[in-house]
Amino acid sequence: MKKGSSRMLLFLGLVSFSFFSPAETNRTSRPPPESGEQCWACDYREHSKQMRLHGIRSQILSILRLQQAPNISRDMIRQLLPKAPPLTQILDQYDPRVEDEDHVTTETIITMATKPDPVLQDDLSSCCLFSLSPKIQPKNILHAQLWVHLRPADAVTTVFLQISRLKPGKEGNGTRVRVRSLKIEADAGAGSGSWQSVDIKSLLRAWLRQPETNYGIEINAYGADGEDLAVTSAEPGEEGLRPFIEVKILDGPKRSRRDSGLNCDEESAETRCCRYPLTVDFEEFGWDWIIAPKRYRANYCSGECESMHLQQYPHAHLVNKANPRGTAGPCCTPTKMSAINMLYFNRKEQIIYGKIPSMVVDHCGCS
């Protein structure tokens, strides 16, 4: 009987354990439902944020057709960035956001001068070659300016600025064809000198129609004493003063569409699909090649798209009904995005000021 009794007690103990243990476990280790949902939402939100940052990096490189970010340091930027009115105006009046309108947009491309082929250069020390971006086409040029920096004159004088187009001559000797001549009244001791601009739209179109004729130009600015005041190469103390071409080209119109969505902040307890603020800092990326903006408001989407919330998103409700059973439902994604204007160096060390599409999340929704 003792043996049978012990078996009975063991059986009762097992029944007791199986009946009470799960409930006790749930009461002691499971967090309150609301707290658990908030924790899950925070983790999912952080994942969405990191995915958005990764996507922005990849998107910018893809749009600019770069396999990797240009290797341009801050020291190189200080040397390459022209200290000139066009860039000063862009940086001073910079607007990182583009308004949501249907309008024709423009892009500004700045190309710095380099030295031409030594065979053509011969004894010309004031030659400059410009490698033109493939984006620039004869029909989409709005205006094209050549910017030249003049050294300060010792006295009030008249400066004759001459722009000559280079052509290969016989026996390797280069020839010049005068393109433009300007008469400039220069003040004495004008501090660090002055910038002068010359319209070269016709010259640029001729180069584009016959690229093989682009051997560069010669730039001279002679004062009364015959001294050449034009800065054509970066001498010590003249960094950022080399000649450059500023070209404004025409882009196509931008279409926009209206949408709505929820807006939340990082402290929000909202679990539905919502737009959250996110500031992208390009310096944290190590992307010094982006001149401006250094940071911008990108935003991101995160949250659930449950059937109980679908009445707020009619489009998502239709998509969900159309999906066969067992397939994934709607996801929280951007339903409206806008562009930003960006000033940056490309891999050829050309300065580009243009529009980068789909960089700002304006609204989020289930789709």
Automatic annotation (TrEMBL):
Coiled coil spans: none
Gene Ontology BP, a term: immune response
Gene Ontology CC terms: extracellular space
Superkingdom of source: Eukaryota
Compartments where located: Secreted
Record keywords, A-Z: Cleavage on pair of basic residues, Cytokine, Disulfide bond, Glycoprotein, Growth factor, Secreted, Signal
Predominant location category: secreted
Residue stretches making up the TGF-beta family profile domain: 255-367
GO MF entries: cytokine activity; growth factor activity
Keyword Magnesium attributed: no
Keyword check for Lipid metabolism: no
Signal peptide segment: 1-25
Pfam families attached to this UniProt entry: TGF_beta (PF00019), TGFb_propeptide (PF00688)
Gene3D superfamilies: 2.60.120.970, Cystine-knot cytokines (2.10.90.10)
Subunit note: Homodimer; disulfide-linked.
Record function comment: Acts specifically as a negative regulator of skeletal muscle growth.
PANTHER family attached to this UniProt entry: GROWTH_DIFFERENTIATION FACTOR 8 (PTHR11848:SF150), TGF-BETA FAMILY (PTHR11848)
Family, as annotated: Belongs to the TGF-beta family.
Record-given protein name: Growth/differentiation factor 8
Source organism (scientific name): Cyclopterus lumpus (Lumpsucker)
Lineage: Eukaryota, Metazoa, Chordata, Craniata, Vertebrata
